[in-house]
Design a protein that fits this description.
CATH architecture of the largest domain: 3 Solenoid
Helix content: 10-25%
Strand content: 25-35%
Number of strands: 28
CATH topology of the largest domain: UDP N-Acetylglucosamine Acyltransferase, domain 1
Structural class: alpha/beta
CATH superfamily of the largest domain: Hexapeptide repeat proteins
CATH class of the largest domain: Mainly Beta
């Protein structure tokens, strides 16, 4: 249902049961899936690919060109997964030649005034609290929670099930399953509350705790700790995910509060 005061380009591909409120603008190269609601005063620009049953609140701007001087008008996109909610005044920029797209997963919640820059990949079931900001080229795993006013530096990676406390400045990679806090950002424990809410057993949480005790509380460097974890800890998907994250880290992982800072 399109309100007469909304502008929808005739070339846009809009499912029949999408609701578009007044004063919204939708450009030509846009696809919107069924069941999605678009509030008033939303701007959806060329390159947006929005899934089913999403909710986009007033003032949001989706798929604007990157705020990157190297952008050369290449044809790039923004992908937004099904059942994702984008609150007031959120901005999501499309990709550059690096990844050619910016991607937000399914079942995410981006609270008011959050910003996702070009070439970011965000997993499923993530929560961005108010004013959370991602610079360009960032990778965020599934079930990540950013508390309010978190800012992440470009090219960082955030592991699945991580929790980053409010007002944090993220300059290093944040491994999976952890809580990150303090200044400078440091390991402050595993995200046990979040893991319990998602059905992780007590034994599995203890296993993850033991892995991070070796990494952060035994005064080993990362290479030594990874070798000990691989040699002494039973191979499980969680152990292997942590080891692979450490191996793949380009910026280096954040330090422990006592051992590194």
């Amino acid at each position: 249902m399109n309100q007469p005061l909304a502008y929808v380009h005739p070339s846009a591909k809009i499912a029949k049961n999408v609701v578009i409120e007044p004063f919204t603008t939708i450009s030509a190269n846009v696809t919107i899936g069924q069941g999605t609601w678009i509030g008033s005063n939303v701007t959806i620009m060329d390159g947006a690919r929005i899934g089913k049953n999403c909710n986009i609140f007033p003032g949001a701007v989706i798929s604007a060109i990157p705020q990157d001087l190297k952008y050369n008008d290449e044809e790039t996109i923004v992908e937004i997964g099904d059942n994702t909610t984008i609150r007031e005044c959120v901005t999501i920029n499309r990709g550059t030649v690096d990844r050619m797209k910016t991607k937000i997963g399914k079942n995410c919640l981006l609270m008011a005034y959050s910003h996702v820059a070009h070439d970011c990949y965000v997993g499923d079931n993530c929560i961005f609290s108010n004013n959370s900001t991602l610079a360009g080229h960032i990778t965020v795993g599934d079930f990540v929670v950013f508390a309010g006013m978190t800012a992440v530096q470009q090219f960082c990676s955030i592991g699945s099930h991580a929790f980053v406390t409010g007002g944090s400045l993220v300059r290093k990679d944040v491994p999976p399953y952890v809580k990150a806090g303090r200044e400078p950002l440091s390991y402050v424990g595993i995200n046990s509350v979040g893991l319990r809410r998602r059905g992780f057993t007590t034994d599995k949480i203890r296993e993850i705790q033991n892995i991070y005790r070796i990494l952060y509380q035994k005064n080993y460097n990362n290479t030594q700790a990874a070798a000990i974890i691989e040699a002494e800890m039973e191979a499980t998907p969680e152990r292997d995910e942590i080891l692979q994250f450490i191996k793949d880290s380009q910026r280096g992982i954040m330090k422990g509060y006592l051992t590194g800072n």
